[in-house]
Predict the structure.
Amino acid sequence: MTQKTLLKLAWQSILKNKMRTVLTMLGIVIGVGSVIVMVAVGHGAQTQIEKQISSLGTNLILVLPGASQQGGVSQGAGTFNRLTVEDAQKLKLEGTTLAGVSPVIFARQVVIGPAGNWRTTINGVSADYFAIRDWPTTSGDPFTEADVRSARKIALIGATVANNLFPGVDPTGAQIQIGRVPFVVTGVLAPKGQNASGNDQDDIIVMPYTTAQSRLSGNIRIGQIMLSTFSPGDIPAATTEITSIMHAAHKLGDNPDDFTVRNQTEIATAATATTSVMTGLLAAIASVSLLVGGIGIMNIMLVSVTERTREIGIRMAIGARGSDVLTQFLVESVVMSILGGVIGLVAGVGGSMLLGRLTGWATSVPTYALFIAVGFSAGVGVFFGFYPARKAAALNPIQALRYE
Amino acid sequence: MTAASVVDDGSRPVIDVKGVTKVYEMGETKVYALRGVDLQVHPGDLIAIMGSSGSGKSTLMNILGCLDVPTGGRYVLDGVQVDGLDRNKLADLRNQKLGFVFQGFNLLARTSAVENVELPLLYDRAHRWKNTKELAAAALARVGLGDRLDHHPSELSGGQQQRVAIARALVTQPTLLLADEPTGNLDSHMTVEVMSLFQELNDQGITVLIVTHEPDVAKYAKRIVEVRDGHIIRDHPVEDRRCAAEDLKILLETEPDELPPLAAATMEVA
């Protein structure tokens, strides 16, 4: 029999029992559909996290004080354990792979505006900061190198701060008071939303680090140095370069590093690893229903073989080999399961879009899931169709012909 | 053993059976269905195998039809030794050398006449047949159903269904046409009709073997072989052989008003 004939035969037989075929395929449809929805939810979460991480800035590298932990023991004990503005300047001067360098001073202060008080995070940074974090303004302009040099009392405020201190008004040009010091708001930063750990990135005030050092009270230290490379490919080279510059700047000699260089790839890898475990888990649970669907196919194929014993006998009498009968039934179950798989695929894509709309979760169906879904359903057809098909092929033609 | 009605021109026999036995083992007891059968069928013969139920004629039919293998003895079909062949070889032999006609017609329901007839051609492993649809249509025309190609079995009378089955048996140009009680489900009119077709095909040179228990059917054959208790007890030519075409003519003249009902005695299988 040619492949075309076999497919036609399977198709005819599937059409003969429409209701039964639909019910059998439903198992596969639900199986494939739920796998796709689950993968879409997981994959959506993953892309969301990747997006949030990239919202921190492109090609971002952080230098943090204190040594990396090795074997749970801090290696930096007793050594010089601070980052300085000089470190940042040195990096800016000597780094060949670095696009931008900015020290970051962290402080928390109460800010007084026309609409009330607001406690927020203050970041004292250099003019490179906005490029490093890829952070534009919605109103006003970022400050410049000259503003940093002259330590002007100016500040850019995040969207959350703007909403709380200046509801419904453009704050650019207005005055606010941080601690006891008056500042001029020179712009509002574009909203970035929550970061990967759920903190509001827009609850912030950014000012020149020089101003922060001279005007803010309290423990003013450089919390970290933020750097960016020209391209993501530069990150490994930049990491090495930063390490050697910092090592020299801190005159560490043979001592271990008293700082840690971290880049986005590490953070992203950790976060996506978590979500891919979650995606895998969800898909595994959903594939149980695919298994149940496969058993449904086996069940119906067994019934079909019994029902069509006479037909099998006729085919064998006129010269069909066992292998011909086996192929016929196998093609039938595979056609049925692939058909179910394709319908399930459409249902799954539609379902995940609907779920995304109803719950607000980010869902996205990765392309590989489509191929896996169809491939898997074909596999289910072969696996669960084989036993009934072999049963049909092993029939004795004489008994099959006599079967009532 | 003589085959008096056949001109023995020295050609090799279509069927050459020597000392064939068939024993079924039912637990401890052994049932002897065939106890040493010798039979030769030559090309162009029209032979009727007769016997009551339990005589062993069905077992003989199954062995001759390559559906079963003998326990002992030798069976050569058209020069091919059948005993000792495996399932696949038997299937190929059935496809290439045999044409089956059954009592219950055994057509595939919900499959058109022409597709039923085409089926054996599609199972040919050597892919000898091109234009299978045309060949099937030609076979149907040969049995007088050239205008019923796309009818389904349920739309045909019993006699017509049996003619479709005969067309299916003929389409591969087999060396032997095997008919197992071909008229068992037909009324007397259609019986004569079908027998007239067998005689016509035999006149065209096709070897036909009919298994039956009806003497009325056997009298259209050239030779009758009687089986009882697993033995061939008689093997003789038919002396007053009847011509089914003439009987049909007489039948139509005596009862001109009673034309064969179109959908009578329809049977749906598979």
Notes: The CA atoms of residues 279 and 374 of chain A lie 19 Å apart. Chain A touches chain B at residues 1-2, 5, 12, 16, 308, 310-311, 313-324, 397-398, 401 (CB under 8 Å). Confidence is low (pLDDT under 50) at residues 76-80 of chain A. DSSP finds 13 helices and twelve strands in chain A.
